[in-house]
Amino acid sequence: MGPHWPGGWCSSLSVNLNLSSVTPETWCRSNAFDATCRLQCSAGATILQGYVPSAATRAMGEEETRAGDLPEPCLAHAIALTSPRDACRCAAVSPAFRAAADSDYVWGRFVPEDHRRAIALHLHDAGRDRGPRKDAYLALCDGGGGGVPVDVDGDGWCRLWLDQASGAKCYALSARRLSLPWEDGDFCWRWAPHARSRFGEVAELMDCSYLDIYGRLPVAVLTRATSYAAYLVYGIAEGHRGLSFPDQEAAVSLGGRVPAESHHRRSVCLRPDEAEARKFWGAGAVIPYGVGGVHVPRLRDDGWWEVEMGRLRTVEAGEHEAPGEDVVASFEVVGSYPKRGLILEGIEFRKLQ
Which residues form the F-box domain (predicted)? Predict the structure, then answer.
């Protein structure tokens, strides 16, 4: 339940504070009339609004109410309507703002409603459920720490963490959740434990001719009005083959259609190797790595490689999404030839930075 708003406090609020610049409290003044003023978040949304008495009004003895004079629950309720980044900026304004911005009420509001039970269990098991909720929130932002095991559609094998600045939900799908190729009725992947995997096991490609990988996630579990990118997370085993060239493609589709942010299927390369590439492109070929060409992977701090598969933007607040709609991230190696040595950890959907 939200805090009580005492009558008269918010109607006489006198503050004009832009949180994106973290300036001290600046007061709207007017000698002729009462001026309207607002407390805004960095995205431009008004979270508190009131008026400043004119000189004539002040001459009659009416005093201004400064933001620091407001009860802490009133400030906390307003700050909770912004974002974690804005809450931290508010804490730099004054002691009164700091007390409200660091309150359990504010940081509890930044925890997603749809996974509260799984998050509470995760924090309890980690011994992080008894301290300030701000510390608990920050613990949920460590995607490299494995994230929170959640069940988004009954299949399990999914981890959640939060983008620290915005609170947007990010997900990692285990290789167990992905659609992997079969050939001749025999599964061409080997499941094996892996010390670096947050899921405890990975899928290693033993041998196949056609390689295509698909991962699905309900759009409804993503944070609204947020730009996301999908990433294939993987490693390369010794004795690998067929993972450099020829063409490899990736894409992100939303309910069967390609989002405007993706434009088209993109060319990617899991293991850039110019010597291997020239076997297919010719000895004098210039390999089109980089912007506008082949998207190459990067080595992460946790030892895995990742390559961006595509992008999408979720529906804006107030808009309706199609019920049961999925976002699908796909990867395909074009061409029939032997392939092996891909160690698949999963697919991640993260807020685009």
Answer: 69-110
